[in-house]
TrEMBL record:
Species annotation: Rhizobium rosettiformans
Official protein name in the record: PhoH-like protein
Domain PhoH-like protein: 53-255
Family listed: Belongs to the PhoH family.
One CC-aspect GO term: cytosol
């Protein structure tokens, strides 16, 4: 059984071991036909929040994250597209099913991917950009465990400047806010993937911030997945699935309507 399916109780049907031989569309059809068990509730220790799918798309997302080695999650803020993989990554690291968590996020400013405007070492410079992921991890493990992981190098924040030439293996990798990546950024990132690794790419195609990143590559890569029937699972949320709060959902919907004129 592959490592991804071991995060929950090991009671999934044997057909899951065939996932690596299936196309993305075949895996999606298998889910719809009930060929996989629904992603179960995570058995969290008392005092920690359980991870339960709040929408049907979240259920599909959890299923993909525990079965596929590459997952793209596209949709608006507040749908859980960053929170859920952060929780699952922490769970896998806690259970020693992976060796490391890598976190990447484009730090778009006036000059792309340059951290010189913040003092300190690379980790300190990038840390403010990945606070949402750390917050999610703290819902899975206590702050001391997170601190130990960081000190031991079991969680690494990586910049695009330092990805070239690397191979990311035996790990869980989260690329957040991928709509702020150029096509070249995504080509570099996606071709770093090594064996026994899970890649999760999250982004919102309605938030490309054209004044800063006019050449976003996320839409192009998503189109490539569909056009060439590539293996990554593609999970798409819409504004009706915002679960952060009723107010957040109202604003996401309003901004969507405003952008459409």
């Amino acid at each position: 059984m592959n490592v991804h399916s071991q995060i929950f109780e090991a009671d999934r049907p044997a057909s899951n071991e065939l996932d690596k031989f299936l196309t993305r569309r075949e895996r999606k059809q298998l889910r719809k036909k009930g060929g996989r068990n629904p992603a179960p509730r995570m058995d969290i220790k008392e005092g920690y929040k359980p991870l339960v799918a709040m929408t049907p798309t979240q259920a599909d997302y959890i299923d993909s994250l525990t079965n596929a080695s590459q997952v793209f999650a596209i949709g608006p803020a507040g749908t859980g597209k960053t929170y859920i993989p952060a929780r699952i990554a922490a769970r896998m690291l806690k259970q020693k099913q992976i060796e490391k968590i890598y976190i990447a996020r484009p730090t778009v400013s006036a000059k792309r991917h340059q951290q010189g405007f913040l003092p300190g070492k690379l980790e300190q410079k990038l840390a403010p950009w990945v606070v949402p992921i750390f917050d999610a991890i703290k819902d899975e493990v206590n702050p001391k465990t997170l601190e130990d992981w960081q000190k031991n190098g079991q969680i690494e924040i990586v910049s695009f400047e330092h990805l070239r030439g690397r191979t990311l293996r035996d790990c869980f990798v989260i690329l957040d806010e991928a709509q702020l990546c150029t096509y070249a950024d995504l080509k570099l990132f996606l071709t770093r993937k090594g064996e026994s690794s899970t890649y999760v790419i999250t982004g919102d195609l309605d938030q490309t911030e054209d004044e800063v990143i006019p050449d976003s590559g996320l839409g192009i890569v998503v189109d490539m997945i569909e056009r060439f029937d590539l293996s990554p699972d593609l999970i798409e949320f819409d504004e009706s699935e915002v679960v952060r709060s009723a107010d957040a959902k109202e604003w996401v919907t309003a901004f969507k309507r405003a952008s459409q004129g």
